[in-house]
Structures are given as C-alpha cells and as structure tokens.
Recover the amino acids of this structure.
C-alpha cells in the first residue's frame, strides 16, 4: 500500500459498508458448511474402518490412504470451518496459513527424514568401543 | 506530549490503511487476524511435537508397542466427540450472527459437553495406560505420545474454560459486538483443535497400530 494514498475517515468508511465483521467471518455459506460436515465425517470414518477392519491387508497402501485422507480432511476443515479464502483480511490469513504450512511441512518431514537416515547410516558401535566409553 | 499525540494519530492512520483492503470492520478485523496469527504459531508448536513424536515413534525401549496399548474403539469414540463438537459449534454461529442469544448458548453448551466428554475419555485412556505400566517414563515413544496428546488435551481444556466463560458472559451481556468477536475467536480456536486432532488420530493412533 503506497504512502501517498490519503486515508479517508474511518467512521465514514465503516458506514459505507453495512455488514460488520461478524458477517464476514462467521458466514461461510450454509451450503459450504454442510458439505464440509459431510466430507469430514466420511473422511474420518473411512480411515478408521480401513485400519480397524484391515480390509486391504497391505499396511503400506493403507498408510498412504489414511495420510492422504487426513490431508484432504485438514484442507476441508480449513476451508469449510475456518473459512479460509483469498479475500478475508485482505489475503493476510491465507498468506500466514501458507507460510505456516511450509514450516510445518519442513519441520515434520525434515526431522523425520534426517533422523531416519541418521539411524540407518549410523555404523553399529563395536563392543570394545562401548567398553571404552564406560 | 504533542509528540505522543502525533504518534497516536499516525498509528490510527496505519491501522486504517491496513484494514482498508477489506472494507468492513473497525478494529475487530485486526483482532481476528491477530488471533489467526496466534493459531498459526500454535500450529508450529504442534508441528515440533509431531516431529519429535515422528522421530522417536519406534523407540520402544523394550516396552509396549502401539498395537498392544492403543484401543482404536476408544479413539474412534473420542474422535466422534471432538468432530461432533466442531459441527455443533458451527450450528451456534448462524444464530450468533442473527443475534439470537438463546440458541447460541444452547449450541455452545452442547459443544462444551461434547468437549468435556472428549477430555473424560482421554483422561480415562491416560490413567489406563499409566496403570498398565505404559506411562510417559516407560520409553521415548510413550514420552512423546503423552507430550503430544497431552498438549492437545490441555488446549481442549482451555477451550472448555473459555466456553464456560462465554456462556456466563452471554447471560450477562447478550450478543454485543465484543461478545461476537470473542465467539468468532473461540470458534476458530475450537475448529483449529479439531484440525490438530486429525493429525493425532492419523499419525499417532491409526499409523501406530498399522506398523
């Protein structure tokens, strides 16, 4: 936002827009909310069913599926329940969310990746060395 | 003195500019954005706890493994409680926007009860685990488990206190503008906790039992 822009009086500005903040945030269309509710229930029931019944008999595939569904469910909750969109607060909530998502991904993914390879690449410690360390 | 006045004036101007893009709210929008930033920072706390759990999730130290100690039926029940509470909170919000105090309080109270049920089941699970000798000091896996799930539980407990305060304040103040703002923040907080729980039940419980 440029400095040269002359701010109008806040009072006038507010009056020009009839709805208060509650409308912009609590809103989310009723329809979007119902879709979100339905999707979140389905996306919760399926992973529990997959794991508890063990229908797939392939733990690897089951794991991929439950993580995929968790990811989708998180997006559904953020969009339908937290009403994240490109417009609210001038896009700042979206920007903050995307930044956080990157950091969360790096923190969790990076830590597990690094520590997993550290564990596998670590040479097994010979007994005599363990003895010397004592 | 005049410096101070000028400062304040400048702040007011900046304030307005920051809000201008969005057109509607005076002040309350900044609260919502600020609360959003808080939620994002809270997400980073949980990210580090998830990372820690991920790193030590197979360090059993000869102790119990997830398959032996996690009761998925109990977790499913708990997940249902928390998801239902998120949905009932969503029922309260349209009533709040229309200024109907009664229904808002009713849905909020139902949300609180479901949240309390969630905490009760979680405490039962924790006490059961500790009684079985699978307490936080048993292995790195269990330490990380109790830290992650316990931190989430502590957040939900704070949310319950907040809901109680809101119920009392709704009785006293009705649905004033500040009350609406507080309820919007609370709803964001509550939905956020449900989102964290998606990560917990997938990563900790379901994936734990799988491997």
């Amino acid at each position: 936002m440029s400095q040269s822009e002359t701010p109008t009086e806040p009072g006038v500005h507010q009056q020009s827009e009839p709805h208060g903040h509650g409308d912009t945030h609590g809103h989310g269309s009723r329809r979007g909310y119902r879709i979100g509710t339905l999707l979140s229930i389905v996306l919760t029931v399926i992973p529990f069913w997959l794991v508890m019944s063990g229908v797939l008999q392939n733990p690897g595939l089951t794991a991929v599926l439950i993580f995929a569904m968790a990811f989708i469910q998180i997006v559904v909750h953020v969009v339908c329940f937290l009403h994240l969109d490109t417009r609210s607060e001038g896009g700042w909530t979206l920007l903050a969310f995307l930044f956080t998502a990157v950091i969360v991904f790096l923190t969790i993914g990076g830590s597990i990746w690094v520590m997993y390879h550290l564990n596998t690449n670590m040479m097994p410690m010979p007994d005599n060395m363990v003895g010397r360390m004592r | 003195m005049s410096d101070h006045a000028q400062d304040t004036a400048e702040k007011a101007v900046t304030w307005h500019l920051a809000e201008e893009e969005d057109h509607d709210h005076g002040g309350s929008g900044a609260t919502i954005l600020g609360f959003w930033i808080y939620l994002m920072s809270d997400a980073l706390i949980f990210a580090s706890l998830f990372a820690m759990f991920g790193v030590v999730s197979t360090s059993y130290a000869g102790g119990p493994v997830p398959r032996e100690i996690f009761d998925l039926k109990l977790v499913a029940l708990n997940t249902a409680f928390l998801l239902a509470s998120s949905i009932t909170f969503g029922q309260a919000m349209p009533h709040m926007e229309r200024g109907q105090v009664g229904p808002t309080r009713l849905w909020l109270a139902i949300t609180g009860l479901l949240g309390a049920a969630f905490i009760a089941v979680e405490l039962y699970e924790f006490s059961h685990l500790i009684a079985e000798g699978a307490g936080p000091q048993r292995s790195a896996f269990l330490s990380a488990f109790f830290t992650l799930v316990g931190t989430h539980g502590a957040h939900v407990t704070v949310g319950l206190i907040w809901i109680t305060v809101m119920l009392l304040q709704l009785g006293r103040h009705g649905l004033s503008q500040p009350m609406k703002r507080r309820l919007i923040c609370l709803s964001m907080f509550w939905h956020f906790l449900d989102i964290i729980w998606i990560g917990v039940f997938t990563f900790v419980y379901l994936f734990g039992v799988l491997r």
